[in-house]
Amino acid sequence: MTITQLEYVLAVAEHKNFTKAAEHRFVTQPTLSMQIQKLEDQLDILIFDRSKKPIELTEVGKRIVEQAKNIVNESHRIQDIVDQQKGFIGGEFKLGIIPTIMPTLLPMFLKNFIKKYPKVKLKIEELTTDEIISRLNDGHLDAAIAATPLESDTIKERVLYYEPFVAYIPENHRLKPKKTIEIADLDLDDMLLLEDGHCFRDGVINLCQTFKKQSDETFQLESGSIETLIKLSNEGLGMTLLPYLHTMELNEAQQANLHHFVEPSPAREVSIIYHKSELKMHIINAFKDIISGVIRGAIAFQNVQIISPLNKK
Asked: Is the entire prediction scored with pTM above 0.85?
């Protein structure tokens, strides 16, 4: 039994196809099939039911795959230990970022990170929180940046910063005369929200529900982007809440529609998260240091009230 054979097994279990698994592992399909067959012969069992389309794991195959994940991860840890001992920070690193953070935070730290750690081959994806948790658990991401806390037993969280909510209130809105607003002023009935599936949306709903019960009416206006929410608000269709970093690039006319909350300002907690068995801690530490450094000058708020992204009902 070899690590390579176990890696081939994991590839087939993921792709449910020998050809696709071989392409993923950069070997020929006959080579991959032969190695898996040798492992099955050695163990005197079948790992895959090849009669099914797509290929399925046998019952014992499912248990073998779970153990194979642990063995392969631990084998990679040896190289990780060596890299850390040598002070080497490099190699492939897969990072996920949620949509309401990516467009503002990524430009702030990416250039600095690439310049300081040129040997790290970054693969960055914009993903929802649910997709991130799934991929972290499956080993398809090394880390992610998301709103926390997530209350997941398998995920570790390290706080990067606290980002206040800022109200965007158009002309003729009932709250426009107020220089600063309170959480109790918010009403879901005139609030523009992101589409379902965004954790920022859930955070806004939780914020409103801190003081009021959710309306029985369905939301008529929801959007997939914060930029669209601003445009809809400018049309007089309601107010919305923005993460603080999104307000920094608004034009002068848009800035005039911003209203801050009285302290403690409601805020979301933003963390770098990773699976509890993650190997590449030296790269995760590098991300945390770089991001903490650039964000320190951008967000000066101290007195904040953290709003959970989880929509608890």
From this structure: no
